[in-house]
Automatic annotation (TrEMBL), chain A:
It comes from Actinacidiphila acididurans. Residues 278-306 are annotated as: Disordered. Gene3D superfamilies: PPM-type phosphatase domain. InterPro entries: PPM-type-like_dom_sf, PPM-type_phosphatase-like_dom. It holds the Pfam family PP2C_2. It comes from the Bacteria. This is Protein phosphatase 2C domain-containing protein. Residues 25-254 form the PPM-type phosphatase domain.
Automatic annotation (TrEMBL), chain B:
Residues 406-425 are annotated as: Disordered. One of its GO terms (molecular function) is protein serine/threonine kinase activity. InterPro entries: Kinase-like_dom_sf (IPR011009), Prot_kinase_dom (IPR000719). Residues 19-313 form the Protein kinase domain. It comes from the Bacteria. Coiled coil: none annotated. PROSITE patterns: PROTEIN_KINASE_DOM. Keywords: ATP-binding, Kinase, Nucleotide-binding, Serine/threonine-protein kinase, Transferase. This is Serine/threonine protein kinase. It comes from Actinacidiphila acididurans. Gene3D superfamilies: Transferase(Phosphotransferase) domain 1.
């Protein structure tokens, strides 16, 4: 985490667990404060993990690094512009251009690595082929919040959930269950074209929190609604008991999720610190096991019976 | 998604009409757009962010609305709305809803299934409509100031377009702040050159960027130099688009060429461009960068696009539409790389006396002759006004004719002088040397 400011506007969540039957995780993630706590940067990347993508742990790590580097530069740019809403059109133009920079950053890392140790072994004859990105395939979901400006980028599976203090969470980049299983990836040609960008102005009075997760988490629920109510439940808990409590329990919830989906599960989040960081005095201790079921409602509890 | 205005909130138009806010469509750089119920039916409302709800913006809106313009290519501001309950200070405006068949350019750039109907021909038509739409504005002395990929929508099946976000347009003489984003802005505006003001001249640069993106699906300055930048922050944008813009296909400066492996689409799409269009892009993005008078004007784009549209070819192997060079040799198919065959052409002579117009149309299967082909100086390209269709003979394969889809009779004249009427619904055989008289002094000669 970067510089710890005196009183950051954002409080962070960060937890990751390895899939239940995996040797090592292909997820990568980061949650950090930016601009001295005035903003937050969240990112998760999910390496594809199958044999064809046997270096995707590297791919996902570079994805998060590439995003972090580019988004930090953008955050600086926003700060230099004084966070003035009248300058937003220019910021949004930079945000729309970011996918190309991120993918280029990732591609350069990948190409360098491939040049030094090609995944397909050394070539023996003929002109050297271009770098093969397939072994490094990964998704990327990233969020940058600066002041009232929320920016999201998404390539491939994963979820961004916005939670206001009350009410239904919203998923600005969600457009229904994936039809085929040909999800977008950093290893495809001109991947930046497929990266979606979303922005919105956060209402000041609603204390919006942001959750970003790999699909290992959402897939552990019987359906999409289950995942959405998990997010709402997490928000309720954060609001009523404070984020510290959530931090204590999060690894358990994710472990349980990972046991249902079998996949790595990663969740990062940022919440307005003034509203969520500390729980009310004398909050009652929740009962972890029961709570966990109730909150997560993952496959295998309520899920399998339907 | 939550915005400034809650669903169900009631706004008031200047006329006093009540406008009920529905769900939010999305957020832009200047404000948020909502579905709205009005006494006249469903509309869209754009509500400005507080920082953008300025007196100047209000004055601009008032004068645009005062123009009372209605043109189906524009979602023109219809009336200003305010919030009588003062939940939010500021204002917004009402416009028509964008029909679903219109898609945005990012969908084209990412090859979204919703735009799969698009082909080189519909893109040409979209380009032509775009040029004519901005030409119509400029002819009224209005500068758009904010031409960019976010305010053009197109119908992938027909190439029709819709121009949104018209709230930055101003009358040419009006003092106005610089609007728009740097990636579409004329370099002299990006540099903040004293004396440079947004107007028709600077719109011409933005228009060329937009056309390039429509055809090439890539920004004309985002080559190798852009990839070296980590984030296109203000300083980087200023350099890339203002102080040192280099066209990715500048014939004399190769420093910003697209990078193979990372920017392959633009390399491929550029290859499909006929020389006549390439030349215009090169002109605008090299000499036109420093000399605004060198920028390609709408009338030039229009002539070039229209003539390329007349030279569209269809591959006999893979059936893909290709763009041919007017009067030029046949290119290779962009899809299957086979050499294309040149079909018959119709040489059209329009008008009377000494002011005859001349153009040539390649007669591909299913090709069309439109009303605008038959007049010397058409006001606008109307693709609903079909007057003839190239059809294959029902019994003789490979024999083509031009079916009269107009409401007036044509006649054909053979080289030997004999003539024959072609009433509506009938077909004129397309043989070497035959002349088709369309009426009004317009005739077409068939060349093999
Ligand atoms: N007249 C309209 N009908 C339907 N949707 C609209 C209309 N105008 C704008 N929108 C949608 O509202 C959102 C915000 O629009 P806008 O402020 O123009 O944003 P942008 O800066 O992205 O162009 C976009 O998703 C846009 O497609
Ligand atoms: Zn072909």
């Amino acid at each position: 985490m970067t510089d710890a400011p005196d009183s950051p506007h954002w409080a962070l969540l960060h937890a990751a667990v390895k899939g239940s039957h995996k040797k090592y995780s292909q997820d990568s993630s980061t949650a950090r404060l930016v601009l001295g706590g005035a903003g937050a940067l969240l990112a998760v990347a999910d390496g594809h993990g199958s044999r064809a993508h046997h270096r995707s742990d590297l791919g996902s790590r570079w994805a998060v690094e590439a995003f972090t580097a580019c988004a930090l530069a953008l955050a600086e740019d926003v700060r230099r512009r004084g966070g003035d809403e009248a300058r937003w059109p220019a910021v949004l133009a930079a945000a729309r251009g970011l996918p190309q920079q991120i993918v280029h950053h990732w591609w350069t890392r990948m190409a360098l690595h491939e040049a030094n140790s090609p995944a397909g072994g050394a070539w023996t004859s003929g002109p050297p082929p271009g770098p093969d990105p397939i072994p490094y395939g990964s998704t990327l979901v990233g969020v940058l919040v600066v002041g009232r400006l929320l920016l999201c980028w998404q390539l491939g599976d994963g979820d961004v959930v916005l939670v206001d203090e009350t009410g239904e969470p919203s998923l600005p980049l969600y457009d229904g269950p994936e039809l085929g299983d040909e999800a977008d990836s950093l290893c495809q040609a001109e991947a930046w074209r497929q990266m979606r960008v979303h922005w919105q102005r956060l209402p000041v009075d609603r204390h919006t929190g942001v959750l970003v997760s790999t699909d290992g988490l959402s897939k552990s629920f019987a359906d999409h609604a289950g995942f959405v109510s998990f997010a709402a439940g997490l928000r309720d808990r954060a609001r009523d008991t404070g984020l510290d409590r959530i931090r204590d329990h999060l690894p358990d919830w994710l472990t349980q999720a990972a046991s249902y989906s079998g996949d790595d599960s990663t969740l990062v989040g940022a919440f307005p610190a003034a509203r969520y960081a500390l729980g009310p005095q004398g909050a009652t201790e929740p009962q972890p096991a029961a709570e966990q079921r109730h909150m997560a409602g993952p496959r295998g509890t309520e899920g399998t019976s339907t | 998604m939550n915005g400034i205005l809650p669903e169900g909130h009631v706004l008031q138009a200047e006329s006093g009409e009540k406008i009920t806010v529905g769900r939010m469509f999305g957020a832009g750089g200047q404000g948020e757009v909502y579905l709205a119920q009005t006494p006249g039916g469903e509309r869209a409302v754009k509500w400005y962010y507080p920082a953008q709800a300025t007196d100047l913006q209000r004055r601009i809106l008032d004068s645009l609305i005062g123009l009372g313009w209605s043109d189906d290519r524009f979602l023109w501001p219809q009336s200003v709305v305010v919030d009588p309950q003062r939940l939010s200070s500021g204002f917004g405006y009402v416009m028509a809803l964008r029909p679903d068949r219109f898609k945005d350019l990012p969908a084209l750039f990412r090859r979204d299934p919703s735009v799969s109907a698009v082909n080189q021909r519909t893109l040409l038509i979209a380009a032509l409509h775009t040029v004519e739409a901005y030409q119509a504005l400029h002819a009224r002395g209005i500068a758009y100031r904010d031409i960019n990929w976010g305010n053009i929508f197109f119908d992938p099946a027909t190439g029709e377009i819709l121009v949104c976000d018209n709230d930055n347009a101003v009358f040419e003489s009006e003092a106005a702040a610089i609007a728009g984003t740097m990636d579409f802005m004329a370099p002299e505006l990006v540099r903040g050159h004293p004396g440079a003001a947004p107007g028709t001249q600077t719109d011409l640069h933005s228009l060329a960027v937009l056309l390039f993106m429509l055809f090439m699906n890539h920004h004309p300055f985002q080559g190798a130099l852009a990839l070296k930048i980590r984030c296109l922050d203000e300083a980087a944008q200023r350099k890339l688009y203002g102080t040192r813009p280099v066209f990715v296909f500048d014939p004399d400066d190769t420093t910003n060429r697209p990078v193979p492996g990372e920017q392959d689409t633009v390399l491929a799409t550029w290859r499909t461009m006929p020389p006549v269009l390439r030349k215009l892009f090169v002109q605008t993005f090299t000499r036109g960068l420093t000399d605004p008078a060198e920028r390609v004007r709408e009338s030039q784009w229009r002539i070039a696009l229209s003539s390329v549209l007349d030279s569209v070819l269809r591959c006999s192997t893979c059936d893909k539409i290709n763009l041919g060079e007017p009067g030029g040799p046949a290119p290779e198919c962009w899809k299957c790389a086979r050499p294309l065959a040149l079909p018959q052409r119709l040489e059209l002579l329009t008008g009377v006396g000494s002011v005859r117009g001349r153009r040539e149309v390649r007669l591909i299967r299913d090709g069309r002759i439109y009303g605008y082909h038959l007049v010397s100086d058409p006001l606008r390209h109307d693709f609903d006004d079909v007057v003839g269709v190239v059809t294959e003979h029902p019994n003789k394969r490979g024999v083509f004719g031009l079916t009269n889809r107009s409401r007036t009779a044509w006649s054909t004249r053979r080289p030997d002088g004999t003539s024959q009427p072609v009433p509506p619904g009938r077909t004129a055989a397309l043989r070497q040397g035959i002349t088709i008289e369309f009426g009004g002094g317009t005739e077409g000669v068939v060349h093999i």
